[in-house]
Amino acid sequence: MRALYQKLGQPALANAEPLPKMVCDAVVSCDLEARKELFANLILTGGHSSVDGCADRLLREVAAGRRKVMGEGHPDTQQ
Question: Which of 47, 70, 74, 76 has its CA 20 to 30 A from that of 36?
Answer without folding.
Answer: 47
